[in-house]
Automatic annotation (TrEMBL):
It holds the Pfam family Peptidase_M1_N. Its EC number is 3.4.11.2. This is Aminopeptidase N. PANTHER family: PROTEASE M1 ZINC METALLOPROTEASE (PTHR11533), PUROMYCIN-SENSITIVE AMINOPEPTIDASE-RELATED (PTHR11533:SF174). It comes from Streptomyces olivochromogenes. One of its GO terms (cellular component) is membrane.
């Protein structure tokens, strides 16, 4: 990546001291074909002194530039920088007329044509540096301005944006001016949207999707809008500042890279949240959490915005914490922290044990430019940061926490703030030493480990000492569980003690419990271990613990022990076989089965042990399917059916399901299940391309196109592998989603010999495609196209040589660094 194509923190500070940006007038015309659109930008700003500076844009063609009515030479554009030389102190107006390229990778102005009905949709994703793909800007978060947009679109289209839009006729749309916002938060979505509109508290609310998804959005519109209203009302109970924008639209858009984006007044979501097929209640809960997460950003991120990208964690950690907590408080989903514990928190734990780990709040010197900032969107900024805030609320108390938050909003609304401002505002609301807490929790790396030691006294009572490996203080609950004498295998809670770690004195706990669990309730962020007797209880009675969040803490402890080489990998699968048949929490079943299959069976066990693991998981899923034959738990049944398909070692059963269009006793096969079965049958060599094409005729949707790409790449045929490889790494025509689908199908543990030559080819080809196509494809190439099942010292050596010699762009380098660390861990687990 060229050093000039990224903005450094020092450059941003210099420009922020020089400029006060007032207003952007932006006119977009999207009626000129499927490759480019017109972008006319007028920026009004003040220079505080005589100086030189620059404005950023990445045009297909720069037609003209004028500064205060005087033409500037478009040829002076150097990559993405247009120099503004000899600025004088005072008011200025910059006018930039350009032709810009549409994106197929979810960056900038993404263009998508629906294969179902031929309709076209556009939306912007302008995070970090991608505003420059749409209009000229002084592109940094602390140069906030008012944005006033107009859009010319084809007849029959609707234009959505940050503010209320008005159709002026003949395809011309005007957007209400925004309050002061950052450049990366500007948003436009245009197309023949299907919309459901309402009002709440005097504000227009709307949800939007492609027309071909209209029946599916309509089916869930009441639930989505009810959750939106409930979260909106709950935030107004928590926050003193009212919602700061003039409307609240939520658009579910195609081929979106992230989960969602917090554009003020127009949140964009990946359209997978519009369910075409059956889903579990846990998936609905996750959608609710994302709605709440993005709404929290309206205050923390949009109203008050980071000054520089080193504080991006604060946006995401706050929204992550608020999303889970607010859904728990305001909706029917009252057990969200179990899902967080079993799905999100391990993401943070894993990231925090890799060489690429960083503090939750990195040192500003560690984020010197925008390229380095992009690398911090990981489990640390989201899951660990949210865990840290949850621990802070436990330590501080919610009342003082919210008082500090509201002080922060009041002091910095429609402006920018830093971590220091945030900590100062929290400190103003409490007598506790928040600055010391921040140093311990936010400026350090790694995962602490807590291990209990029980000591018997002469009278038969016991004391607890917690061995603490790490540096952070923790306020935790210690659960004491006894065997239920009336029901074998069931545990009852005797007491839940509060403990501060490190502590000065041993804690009296009375008689020895059957199970002592540190961090019961999962209020802190740490790995926990068991004393020997507690571990024996876990192996026999884990399913007998009364609360799902407690069971999540135990399952995470087993997961950590496997990853650390302290528990044999097969022991985890045996624990799943013993306890999941009795589990009712969907998040736990899904999380445990996913880790057991994708990590333990596919990576941590030697190839010769994998068939036994798959057979065990197949039997487990079959038991869950039988257990739910009475229809009492459709979500659990659906989860079991999905995983049965995924681990099937023989095609007969799932092929019969496909032919009959149903699982005996239900569910009937919807598109998701049909493509899932075809994907597994393709891996097993039980179908050919003709079957895939026939299914695509039945489901020509975007999701169907992705399913077909995944299946074709999974076929155990040399020619199919060659075509898939060329599609990913040579042709450059795949959209981001089709690239991911092809990559997901390509590598299969069953096909190690067939794809061996591609393991060696991967490194150079991934480096090349990432350099050509940019960060989004680099992320996909490193995340999904990596040969995860080639667990060998040779693969590790090839990867290390690539990092050392091939100079991958930063986005790919970070992904490869993490993947190689996971590969090294898998090798260690295999030999433990």
């Amino acid at each position: 990546m060229s050093p000039m194509s990224v903005l450094t923190r020092d450059e941003a500070q210099t420009r922020a001291q020089l400029l006060d940006v007032h207003h952007y007038g932006i006119a977009l015309d999207v009626t000129h074909g499927d490759e480019t659109f017109d972008s006319l930008t007028v920026i009004r700003f003040t220079a505080r002194a005589d100086a030189d500076t620059f404005v950023e844009l990445k045009p297909a063609e720069l037609r003209s530039v004028t500064l205060d009515g005087q033409p500037l030479d478009p040829e002076t554009l150097d990559e993405n920088r247009l120099p503004l030389k000899g600025l004088t102190a005072g008011e200025h107006e910059l006018r930039v007329d350009a032709r810009m390229r549409y994106s197929r990778t979810g960056e900038g102005m993404h263009r998508f044509t629906d294969p179902t009905d031929g309709e076209t949709y556009l939306y912007t994703q302008l995070f970090m540096e991608d505003v420059q793909r749409v209009f000229a800007a002084f592109d940094q978060p602390d140069l906030k301005a008012v944005f006033e947009l107009s859009v010319t679109a084809p007849d029959g289209w609707t234009v959505l944006a940050n503010g209320v839009t008005e159709h002026l006729g003949e395809g011309r749309w005007q957007v209400a001016p925004t309050p002061l916002i950052s450049t990366y938060l500007v948003a436009v979505a245009a197309g023949p949207w299907h919309s459901v509109r309402t009002e709440h508290r005097g504000l227009p609310f709307g949800i939007h999707c492609r027309r071909s998804l209209a029946p599916h959005l309509d089916a869930d519109s009441d639930e989505i809008l009810d959750i939106t209203r409930a979260c909106f009302d709950r935030y107004h109970e928590k926050f003193d500042e009212p919602y700061p924008f003039d409307s609240y639209d939520q658009a579910f858009v195609p081929e979106f890279n992230a989960g969602a984006m917090e554009n003020p007044g127009l949140v964009t979501f990946r359209e997978e949240f519009v369910y075409r097929s059956a889903v579990t209640d846990t998936e609905r809960q996750n959608r609710a959490m994302v709605i709440a997460h993005e709404m929290a950003h309206m205050w923390f991120g949009d109203l008050v915005t980071l000054r520089w990208w080193d504080d991006i964690w604060l946006n995401e950690s706050f929204a992550e914490y608020m999303g889970y907590q607010t859904v728990t408080e305001a909706t029917r989903f009252t057990d969200t922290w179990t899902d967080f514990g079993v799905t999100r928190k391990p993401w943070g734990y894993d990231a925090d044990q890799r060489p690429s780990t960083h503090p939750v709040a990195p040192d500003p010197d560690a984020v010197p430019d925008t390229a380095s900032a992009m690398l911090n969107f990981d489990g640390i900024s989201y899951a660990k940061g949210a865990s840290a805030l949850r621990q802070l609320v436990t330590w501080l108390g919610e009342k003082d926490f919210l008082a500090g938050i509201n002080a922060h909003f009041a002091r910095h609304k429609f402006a920018n703030a830093t971590l220091a401002d945030f900590i100062d505002n929290l400190a103003s609301a409490t007598e506790r030493d928040v600055h010391a807490w921040a140093d311990s929790w936010l400026r350090t790396t790694g995962v602490d480990t807590l291990t209990p030691t029980l000591t018997a006294g002469p009278d038969g009572t016991h004391t607890l000492t917690v061995e603490h490996h790490g540096s952070r203080p923790h306020r935790i609950a210690v659960g004491l569980y006894d065997n239920d004498l009336g029901v074998e295998g069931r545990l009852t809670l005797r007491d839940r003690l509060e403990a501060d770690v490190p502590g000065t004195e041993p804690t009296m706990i009375g008689k020895r419990p059957a199970l002592l669990l540190l961090n019961d309730g999962d209020l802190s962020y740490a790995k926990v271990r068991f004393d020997p007797e507690s571990f024996r209880t876990v192996r026999t009675a884990l399913a007998g613990l009364p609360e799902p969040l407690t069971r999540a803490v135990v399952w995470n402890a087993l997961r950590d022990a496997v990853r650390d080489g302290e528990l044999p990998a097969m022991a985890y699968i045996d624990a799943a076989r013993a306890h999941l048949p009795h589990e009712s929490d969907l998040a736990l079943v899904q999380g445990v089965l996913s880790f057991a299959a994708a990590q333990v069976a596919d990576r941590y066990l030697p190839a010769e042990d994998r068939p036994t693991a798959l057979a065990t998981l197949t039997d487990l899923c079959r038991d869950l399917i039988r257990r739910t034959e009475d229809g009492s738990h459709p979500g659990l049944r659906l989860t079991a059916v999905r995983h049965y398909i995924d681990v099937a070692a023989h095609p007969d059963t799932i092929s019969a399901w496909f032919s009959e269009g149903t699982v005996p006793g239900g569910p009937e096969l919807d598109p998701e299940l049909r493509w899932r079965i075809l994907g597994r049958l393709a891996v097993l060599g039980a179908i050919d391309d003709a079957v895939i094409e026939a299914e695509l005729v039945q489901d020509p949707s975007a999701t169907g196109q992705e399913g077909a790409a995944r299946c074709r790449a999974a076929l155990p045929d040399p020619e199919a592998k060659r075509r898939a490889w060329e599609e990913m790494f040579t042709s450059d025509h795949l959209s981001n989603y089709l690239f991911i689908a092809t990559a997901q199908g390509f590598w299969q543990p069953e096909q190690t010999h067939l794809v061996r030559e591609y393991v060696e080819r991967y490194w150079a080809d991934a480096v090349a495609v990432s350099a050509r196509r940019g960060p989004a494809i680099a992320d996909a190439a490193g995340r999904y196209a990596f040969p995860v099942h080639a667990v060998s010292p040779e693969t590790l050596a090839l990867g290390e040589a690539c990092l050392r010699d091939a100079d991958p762009i930063p986005a790919l380098r970070r992904k490869l660094l993490d993947q190689l660390d996971d590969l090294a861990r898998a090798l260690k687990v295999r030999t433990a």
